[in-house]
Every structure is written in structure tokens, then in C-alpha cells.
Amino acid sequence: MSAETLPGQGMMLANLYGERKNQTFPTLTAPQIARLASHGTKITVPKGKILAEPGDRHRKLFVVLAGSIEIVRPTLQGEQLLVVLTAGQFTGEMSTLRGVGSLARARVRENAELLAIPDDQLRTVVQTDAILSELFMRAFILRRVALVAAQQGDLILIGSRHSAGTLRLQQFLTRNAYPYVNLDVDSDTDVQPLLDRFHVTADDIPIVICRGEKMVRNPTNEQLADCLEMNPQIDCKTVRDLIVIGAGPAGLAAAVYAASEGLNVLVLETNAPGGQAGSSSRIENYLGFPTGISGQALAGRALVQAQKFGAEVAIANSALKLRCQPKPYEIQLSAEQIVRGRAVVIASGIEYRKLTLANTDRFLGVGIYYAATFIEAQLCKDEDIVIVGGGNSAGQAAVFLSNSCRHVNLLVRGKGLSESMSRYLIRRIEDTPNITLRTSTEITALEGDTNLEHVTWHCSHDNQTTTSSIHHVFLMTGAVPNTHWLQGCVAVDDKGFVRTGADLIGEDLASGSWPLTRQPYMFETSVPRIFAVGDVRAGSVKRVAAAVGEGSTCIQLVHRVLAE
Three-state SS for 346? Predict the structure, then answer.
């Protein structure tokens, strides 16, 4: 029997996928339920019993044996019914597997007999039973995607398309696949009653309302993650086998392979899974995806894999300092916590280089952007824009944004793109009429009041300077490694990239007091059992596939050093 919904918005969750509804809300067979029986306990629950509230952690997964369960979303206007689960169906979505805050309320609709499965036993099932694992994981993923698409979250974001803080929060929520209701003070008529209810004004935006109760003005990403209980509670007393810093392609690959091979893994990520690659609109040269895949989708799949195998992932948790002296190694977090690990993988990635102009930061989020996703594309729809950069990320952004923008000016300092961009992207740029490649060109001035209004660039080839009425500039040039938090713990090159393996010189090992008779392994830094992979590593190939390869290969060496 398939899931039921009431008319109105509540229909969206169950019906959003059409033919995929049976995968989103599958009905378990009797043999499948029998296989689950040893992982849970049969209970009888009366009508009206609350099984889970929004924000509840480490809740159980419930399989309906008889009766029914209703999943509702509390709103400021009352409850909204999302779906009714009947015999053979089950509760849960990705937050259930992670043991983090629930997004909805689960309540017994009719007197029910249930199979209650604790979250640790659920992880055992998805790791050991291939058929049930595929069924549960597909359902969990589709349910989360449906919640995001239907804006059926327990968070309301009140902001403006002219607010840098609003864009930052939208990026954070979207890249972390967290469903939310977005309200714009400039266009949504429902905003004013909410502002009055929480005694705030439009001048206070962006404003976040968590679960209809807690109101926060312009929260940091860390504050927002705490408000939503997005992360598992970190046990600082546990010494992990491995701590991975960064959840880009390299870090997630390391987490997947380490966790699947039985290591206790903690991943720390400052912003969102995917790193720089996560902001790519479409990656078309990654092996196995002939039609391409967005960076966010690729990162999301890798994150699910890591969590499936038991890796603990903490979002909006920044590594402030790596302490190399104590064993195990200690990492100080932004929340003034310290976590410890027997081995460390540095996968903190890189950032795009900023313009040297004095007022660049002033227009961050209101004219200057370092990502080109659907969110940014909506901001500059039907307008002329500038993209700075000659690498694949800039090329992907130019092709993507040309679909919605009036005209794309692609600025590069060099004489062409052949040395830095894949040929398939160059051909696509050449064949797109509303993309103009401007070589030997650099931005020399940015002007505007609260938002960017004019951009000036200079072409050294013809010595011409041009000023245009442009409100959106995408910066995708150069690479600055995220290594400031290492504070001299491991050896880096003159640009700040981490030296590893054969690239380490005698001075590196002497200054780091290398204590072993053996030489550092490939990807190992100047400190034993601390590795570096991906873009942050000196000499690495700046490609997603290369980062994934380094992250996965590194784990074999982690096993070796842990056994020493």
C-alpha cells in the first residue's frame, strides 16, 4: 500500500517523484522484515503517541507492522501533513542514519505495531545487507531531496537578494542539502507578519527562524549548524584512528575508504561537502559520468557513502590549530574543543585568489562571488557579467551562466586558454555566442555604493581601458592553500602548499625532527602519521579525479603507519 497525503502542499513530498514514489516510500516484503527483526524490538504503540520531534537525535527507525504513522511538519500556522506510512513502510531519512536532529514530527496515526530499530543497528544493516542497504539508502536520499525541492524544512530564512549575509546562508543550506523556506523582504507578502511576530524589522536581515521558535539575526555558519542540530555530538574523549580535515573530494575519498575498512574516522569541514569542486555547476570530465555531474551532487553522494560506512562528519567545524607534539595528535576546533587522532589527513584544499583591489571585500556577496551555482545564477539572470579566470572552473562557470545571463565576459591575463583549460570547454566557449573571451585583460577598478555597479578592466594587448555597467563578477583565478591553521606544524613550500613524500627536503625533516629511520611515505608530511592529499598538497594535479585517487590511496599508508 503506497503512502497517503492530504491535499495542498503536503502532497508534494510523496508525489514529487511520480514513478519514483515507490522508491521514496517503498513497502518491505515479509522476508525483508524478517531479516530486520534481529536488529530491533517489536512494540505496540497507541494512537497519538509521539515517536520523534524535530531536533531529536539518535532516534530509532520504525517499520510499520500494523496500523499507521503520520509524518508532519510543525509550522507557524500549525501542522502540515507530509506523508502517512502504512504496513511495511518505514520512517527516516538521511538525518536518521547520521544520528542528527530530526526534520519532522512522527506520530502514531492509528494504534500500531512497530519494529523499532536503533540508529546503530540501522548502520549495521546498511553496511552488511546489500539489498536492504540499497533500499534504505535510496529512500533516505530521495526523501531528503524531496524535502529540499518542496521547501519542507523546519527553518525559515528571511533575507534579500541584495544582502551578502542572505547569500552566504543560502549557499550554506543548499550545499549541505538542508531544506528551508526562503522569504524575500522585497517580494514576499508573507514576510511582514513574521517580522512583527518576532519583533524585528527588515533592517535586521538576514533572519533565521529555527523550528518556529528560535530567532537568530545573521548567524554564522557554525551558529546555524548548532541551531539546526545538523551535526552529531562530538565526543572529545574518544581518540580516533583518523581525523580528516576537509570534506572535499580528497577528504571524502579518504573517509569512505578508511571507514569502510574499519577505522574510526572523524571528518571536520568548515563550510560544506565538496570543497571548491562542490561549487562547480557541472563536471563533465570525471570518469563514469559521461553526461556530467554537478559538484554538489558528486559531493553529496560521497558524503552519503562516508556516513553509510560509519564516518562521523562534522559540518561548520573548523580546525584552528594542529598540535604536532602530543601523541595522539590534537586538533583545536572553532568551538574551543579539542579532538585527538592517531593519524591525520590534511585535505583542507584551496581558495580562489582575491583581487588586489582595496574594495573587493566590500562587494563580497553583493557583486563579487567565488562560486557559480543555481543560487548565483538567479541573482544575475538576464544581465551582463564578468568571470575572471582561465581554468576549468572558470570555463564551467562561463558555459553554465551563459544559459541565463545576457552576456558573459571571460577575462584572462594570458594570451589564451589552451595552457590552463580542457579543450572541450574551450570549444564550447568558442561556440557560445554570448560569451566573449578577453585575453591579456585584468580588472582595475570596482565601483558602487552598497552593491557593485561598475567594473573597469584594462587590456594590455591594445592598451585599452573599458568601464561597463556590470553588477556581478565571478572570481575563479589562482589558488591559495588553506594551510594557515597548521601554524608551522608541517613543512610547506614557498606558496604555502604542504610538502609530502619525495618532495620533502633535508631541511624539512631536520626542522620537523623526523624521529624514524625510514623516509616519509608518499603523501606523508614532515611529521609521521600526518598526511596531505588533494589540492592542498604541493605538486598535486588540480583535478577532482586526482584528488579522489590521492585520498583513497593514502588510506593504505594510514593502515601501515598505525601498525608501526
Answer: strand
CA 91 to chain centre: 24
CB-CB neighbours of 362 under 10 Å: 16
**Residue-wise pLDDT tens digits, 377-427:** 999 999 999 999 999 999 999 999 999 999 999 999 999 999 899 999 999
Beta-strand relationship, 329-333 and 338-346: antiparallel
Three-class SS of residue 62?
A: strand
Confidence of residue 334 (pLDDT cuts 50, 70, 90): confident
Higher pLDDT: 212 or 275? It is 275
Tens-place pLDDT, residues 155-186: 999 999 999 999 999 999 999 999 999 999 98
CA distances for 205 relative to 227, 261, 362, 375, angstroms: 17, 46, 17, 18
Contact (Cβ atoms closer than 8 angstroms) between residue 3 and residue 21: yes
Q: Are strands 207-210 and 155-159 parallel, antiparallel or unpaired?
A: antiparallel
Is residue 347 domain-shared with residue 374, that is, in the same domain? no
Plot region of 289 (φ>0 → left; ψ -120 to 50 → alpha; else → beta): beta
For residue range 531-561, list pLDDT tens digits in order. Answer: 999 999 999 998 999 999 999 999 999 999 9
CATH code, 396: 3.50.50.60
Q: For the chain, what is the radius of gyration of the CA atoms?
A: 25
Q: Does 25 lie in the same domain as 91?
A: yes
Given a cut of 90, is residue 21 above it in pLDDT?
Answer: no
322-358 as b/e: b if 16+ CB within 10 A: bebeeebbbbbbbeeeebbbbbbbbbbbbebeebeee
Helix %, strand %, coil % for the chain, to 5? Answer: 30, 25, 40
User: Cα–Cα distances in Å, from 560 out to 36, 149, 525, 528?
Assistant: 36, 44, 15, 11
Buried b (16+ CB within 10 A) or exposed e, 480-509: ebbbebbeebbbbeeebbbbbbebbeeebb
Which residue type, as a one-letter code, is found at position 335?
Answer: A
The reply to whether 552 falls in a domain is yes
pLDDT score of 375 more than 70:
yes
C-alpha to C-alpha distance for 346 and 239, rounded to whole angstroms? 17
Residue range(s) defining the domain that contains residue 204? 155-228
Cell numbers found for residue 330: 590534537
Q: How far apart are CA 529 and CA 527, in angstroms?
A: 7
Distance CA 46, CA 113 (A): 9
CATH number at residue 34: 2.60.120.10
Number of domains within the chain: 4
**Under 8 Å between Cβ of 538 and 550:** no
> pLDDT averaged over the chain?
92
- Residue in the structure block whose three cell numbers are 585527538: 340
Last residue of some domain: 121, 149, 177? 149
Beta strands 350-351 and 480-481, pairing class: antiparallel
C-alpha–C-alpha distance, residues 548 and 552, integer Å = 6
Which residue is it, cell 578592466?
457
φ, ψ of residue 137 to 5 degrees: the values are -65, -40
Q: How confident is the model at residue 13 (pLDDT cuts 50, 70, 90)?
A: low
For 86-233, where are the E strands, in sequence order?
Answer: 105-117, 155-159, 181-184, 207-210, 214-217
C-alpha cell at 128: 552488511
**Residue 186: which CATH number?**
3.40.30.10
